[in-house]
């Protein structure tokens, strides 16, 4: 058999990620490949760091993109900050809190779990009780935007508690960066990781991270070597440090970095606060349309993410069949539930350039057709848009 070139179908991506990619980003991928130590590439690396500091709202010197997906950013934070025997309080209110626990264990730490309800924000009061009960804890870890449920936790309050109890914080912002209010310096976050394929509307494969000065102090004073050579920040900074002279660490994904740079330029052009407001506007329109169709969102209004909407599947409706019809008839991708919510919810993403009025109205219209509903959610959403001017 002769295998031919792969040409993917054109989809509208409204699942939990990846999101649709800006055309400017696909164009950036096609630019000439140069060496990863070329002076011009090094100059662009410095721009990426500056743009990423803008996106994270931080002045942290150790702010850079890991040359691997968001899961590698997560692992980078844990393997650099958790030493054998360290007690780490981990908040789990969905799938990705569970992954944090796995990382603590693999780094030789002792996880203390604050078990939360799926579809709800992390309970700040329960975290405070746990910190009081474990005064020897070194780190508090939590997910800011839980992709499996659509719940947004109060990162500012949780970081404040951690500081009061002399703990560092590790924060998962894979789904929140660029789509929800996020203030690394203002909230006192010590280590944070994200991904490119969500609200930045870039191709998957890069993981932005940032470490505070306190986090850097802990990394530099470790008694044990970082368990991962590739993710050891002491080594990576030799390549991502300041100046034109860089120590070879790995061959960076050059063209993917062009794409990431372009994504951050687009975010800067829109303005970070404008991006947050845009995601909120289209989430509110989608919510109005879903409610008009008799569909219910899992997360209470005050705890919802704008960019990830978990919708309860009505009784008697076949989850997989609906998603399959949306894909085959409308080229529209929405996500299935994970973990405790598998088969119980659909996850509708409004991320990056996918967060727009056309997508909201098209999604509601397609859902109405597939469900055979006589309730027009698109009309309700359109009325909301008109009310917003």
Automatic annotation (TrEMBL):
Residue ranges of the TM segments: none
The UniProt record lists the keyword Transferase: yes
Annotated keywords: Aminotransferase, Pyridoxal phosphate, Transferase
Residue intervals of the Aminotransferase class V domain: 33-337
Gene Ontology molecular-function annotations: alanine-glyoxylate transaminase activity; L-serine-pyruvate transaminase activity
GO biological process, alphabetically ordered: glycine biosynthetic process, by transamination of glyoxylate
Cofactor: pyridoxal 5'-phosphate
UniProt modified residues of type N6-(pyridoxal phosphate)lysine: 198
Pfam families recorded: Aminotran_5
Positions that bind substrate: 347
Family: Belongs to the class-V pyridoxal-phosphate-dependent aminotransferase family.
Protein name, per record: Alanine--glyoxylate aminotransferase
